[in-house]
Design brief:
Helix content is about 30%, strand content about 25%. Bound molecules: 2-oxoglutaric acid (AKG). The site of 2-oxoglutaric acid (AKG) has 10 residues, from loops. Keywords: Hydrolase.
Amino acid sequence: MKVACIQMNVRYGKVEENFANAEKWLRKAAAQGAEIAVLPEMWNTGYALKDLPKLADDKGQRTQQFLSELSQQLQLHIVGGSVATAQNEHYYNTMYVYDNTGQQQSSYDKAHLFRLMDEHLYLTAGEGTPNRFDLGNIEAGAVICYDIRFPEWLRTQALLGAKVLFVSAQWPTARVDHWKVLLQARAIENQCFVIAVNRISHKVENFNGYSMVIGPWGEILWTGNDTEEMAIIDVPFEQVDEVRNRIPVYEDRRPEIYTEVVKD
Ligand SMILES: O=C(O)CCC(=O)C(=O)O
């Protein structure tokens, strides 16, 4: 299954330019044979949090129409990164996922808000419905950026059957070492593919890519550079079962000795 990681240059507050750029990359992904395409976090507005009242997508309508039409037209599954949305005077960091017939498979609001970048002052956290969906015969889950620091949350998607975890992010360069290690750990501990797409920088911000595709044994299959780019990676999803058979972590789990602590 060929997956396009679209490491897009998101322009701060420039919604029209960002939509045009996302469309350009999605069309290119389909033309180059991708079957799934993944976008980064908050690709409509960037981190223009103070301007959300004028920039956020009202009920996500524009984004949903855009992704539905393109996924159907291009016959491309789209993990739609995330966009800033407005719902009843609250603002959310929302991911929409469409299959290659234009049907919405999932809608997810970022569950953990990142205080270091003031997200909690401007955004409302999602209610925490797990983001598990199927794309064709691929069992998938997806989270947004800071969510990867919460292993229980990714484990939730894995326990619900995800064999690949998509991550859409605007992860700052300052903590890129954390990004790499956390993604690799999430892949190893959940014995699944992790396909993580970060954005790159606009002049006033500092996000330098390093998108990653990691296998269920922890091997790094691709790392992005620090430029706007797209890679199409052939992902051997069948390897997940081999790895899970080799080390039967899921069978060896003992939830009775730790579930309550994790819930605390
Ligand atoms: O956890 C981090 O260091 C970065 C998280 C982040 O930038 C985000 O969630 O937008």
